[in-house]
Predict the structure of Type II toxin-antitoxin system VapC family toxin.
Amino acid sequence: MLTTSEILIDTSIIVHSLNKDSFRHSKAVTYLSRLAGQPKAVTHQNIMEAYRVLTHPKHPNPMTKQQALDALKYYVDNCRVISPTEDTFKSLNTVMASSSVVGNKIMNAYLVATIKANSITKIATFNKRDWEDFVGIEIIDLETQA
């Protein structure tokens, strides 16, 4: 499988970049600025996860539905939005066989299968531990970046 230099932007970065009160907001925005002009991607899953968090009543500053949709439009307009392909389920079987994923982590496995089916192997995140079980994924950990 050919891979690209594209970087998947994890939901954690999306949420922190859009939450001005987050202690990670500045780091997320700075990182995204450094990626200007470079190929980056998000999945439908990332957009839906971010929408869920941003509009949840327990979020420190929940957005209205329209505010969240407007904010997420940046990612739709500035990233390649990828979807599962015909190869995603085959990729999911491979991902599951090479990891110890069970329970709630199935959604991370599905995201990994989706990005691999779209020839992406890099993920930028604030949650490195969420991705360490997966073989063949390069993790760009924003927690450790200056």
In short: The first strand starts at residue 7 and ends at 9. Residues 7-141 form a domain with the Rossmann fold fold (CATH 3.40.50.1010). Strands lie at 7-9, 40-43, 80-82, 122-125, 138-141.
